[in-house]
Amino acid sequence: MSDKEIQNPKSKIQNRSDFYEITNESLDVGAIARRVVPASCGAIVTLDGFVRQFTKGRETEYLVYEAYEPMALKEMEKLVARAHEEFEIENVGIVHRLGKLEIGETSVVISVASPHRRAAFEACEWLIKELKRTVPIWKKEVYRGGEIWIEGDSQVKSEK
Amino acid sequence: MKVSVLFFGATADEVGEREINLEFSDNAKASDAFGEIVSKFPRLASHKLLFAVNQEYASGDEIISDGDELAVFTAVSGG
Fold this sequence. Notes:
By secondary structure, chain A is of the alpha+beta class. Chain A has helices at 29-34, 69-86, 117-134; strands at 12-13, 19-23, 43-50, 54-55, 58-67, 92-97, 99-102, 106-114, 137-143, 146-149.
């Protein structure tokens, strides 16, 4: 079911039907989640990360996301590979949207399919945490009174 | 030896460019190259910075080559 060609040139498919993509289009969370399902799986866990209105006392008007796209895709590929090493899961799908996002719009979807739900939950949590630490994507918050590029606070070590 | 240097988000705002080309002596270390970039654009120093060479996070010990793609950016904030 997930074997069909993906038209988005920014996506990559591996034999396992994992996918990781960057897009400027709005995200259909349900459609993304359905793409990870093989017959062996008993659970899909999907994270729908969307734009919230209030952050640290600021009222957000909208967000703008930007990426170092080729490096972001490489880092996402590494994340998917590490998730398979760490957790007993089947397919993983990650889609991150770029550009201007309004309140309530989905910025990132991570879907994990697994024979058992516990691994799916743990892998999904791990993937969002690691994505936020390592994938070169940045968000600019435009709020009442100004705008600011959000700078993460995690360390990244280069891996040899 | 010429390399391109990419900036994103806050670093692009500080530098006023998204891409520049710089010349370094042959066999320059990445850490020296990045040090020169920050000296050239001192506003970068007010941020905690990450560095990449050819789309991989850099430790600084890498030797850079003609045609390499360097990048300087702030800690990531996707998701």
